[in-house]
Amino acid sequence: MLKDIFVSTVRVKLLKILLPQSDSEFHVRALVRSVGTEINAVRRELTRLQKIGLLKRRPSGNKVYYKVNTHSVYYPELLSLVSKEMGLGKAIIENAKALGDIKFAVLSKAYSRGRQSSMLDIDLLIIGDVNLTVLEKIIKDEESKTGREVHYTVLSEEEFLYRKRKNDNFITSVLAQSRTMLLGDEEAFCKLS
Fold first, then answer.
1. Domain boundaries, the chain
2. For 77-113, what is each residue's pLDDT tens digit?
3. Where would one find coiled-coil regions in this protein (predicted)?
């Protein structure tokens, strides 16, 4: 999907590598190997991304390193797009029908950034009538690919509404965290009462 929106496939590949690992620095040659294209194409795209403020450049001796600028105005939206294009987000979107009647599927931005969540954090919240067998297979596949545990919660719409009206601490913390809407409308999710 991103390659249909963005003209440059090299840029899309770079975004898929860099954005989920925003805490890491990448050497140009390592990015060239990961992307699998010529160095000039990678340098050109890195320069473009740096010019719009999405990347920071740090020379060190004769090497150049790039890191995501998480304060960039473009970062949150691009991270959301990438989260829908790969990994758990992509699996949820692609399997939406098989998962059942889902009103909302919400992925935490912390999970999208590759951060390990604590037991208090929620990586994925799904609201609706969900086929748990399909969901558990998706979760197991993701955990085996990434080596990270996925903390998820499934609630019926009625239970979500009830807990939201009661100002349940868990629901309040989920609503307060930064997120990517995989399925459903963000405004409807926040207004639901």
1. 2-68, 86-191
2. 999 999 999 999 999 999 999 999 999 999 998 888 8
3. none
